[in-house]
């Protein structure tokens, strides 16, 4: 499976903060926002990842990650010149996807929960069409909402329904088989002039090939598109990290635990950031898992 992070847009709801910097590079507590969706793809075992952003912002992502080899990844980059809807990611990334299935994650979504890597791996293993991820919310009328049968198969999708049939909002993480590229090519823009991800999902629904995985109790799904939600997300991460002594979405630790890099490589990544608490944490994890500290001359 290939991965795509859609990190474009102008972040107008966060102006003036995002006038000069990409929303996905803003800090969520102790790390850039994009670390969170990147860690989701890594937890799914995906190593070949395309980051899509604006022409202005893309060089900053390249400066942050390079080619991804330090994390055991193969990262590439592509420009989205205008925010023409989420399905455009499959058109921009068609060559990247090739003949594989694909996971799309939005660059401003944060996911955290127990055994998440197992949930993701199971969803990839059972992929037959598309897998969406649902999260219970108290205000489903603000979201795209999925209704399922007893097996988890989607039976209806409604966009911002006045009378929701369920409280499961469809999150910004999507798994699709390779058909999604052709589906996206044949979409017609909506009244807003954009391609709609709901139209893609509806196509799979009508074929009986859409499944909704309920993240449910114990998971957190956070959107960081407004100043309040950005602050709340940072506070959530800070509280958990302080109480549990772990760092959420530490991509160096994820790379190590997923077997993408070895402890010595992880230690070197931490040492590069050794003056920060984040870097010291990475070094400590690497030592715990067998890194050999370089001798000082």
Summarize the structure.
The chain folds into two domains: 2-261, Alpha-Beta Complex (Spore Coat Polysaccharide Biosynthesis Protein SpsA, Chain A); 262-296, no CATH class. It is built from eleven helices and 13 strands. The chain has helices at 35-43, 58-65, 88-92, 94-97, 116-125, 179-185, 197-206, 227-244, 251-257, 263-271, 277-288, and strands at 2-6, 27-28, 31-32, 48-53, 74-79, 102-106, 109-112, 130-136, 144-148, 154-159, 168-176, 210-214, 220-223.
What does this structure look like?
With 297 residues, the protein is of the alpha/beta class. The protein has eleven helices and 13 strands. The chain has two domains: 2-261, Spore Coat Polysaccharide Biosynthesis Protein SpsA, Chain A, CATH 3.90.550.10; 262-296, no CATH class. The strands form four sheets. A seven-stranded mixed beta sheet has the order 5-4-1-6-11-8-12. A two-stranded antiparallel ribbon has the order 2-3. Strands 7-13 form a two-stranded antiparallel ribbon. Helix 9 runs antiparallel to helix 10 and helix 10 runs antiparallel to helix 11 (277-288). The longest helix is centred in the last third of the chain and has 18 residues, at 227-244. Residues 2-235 form the Nucleotidyl transferase domain.
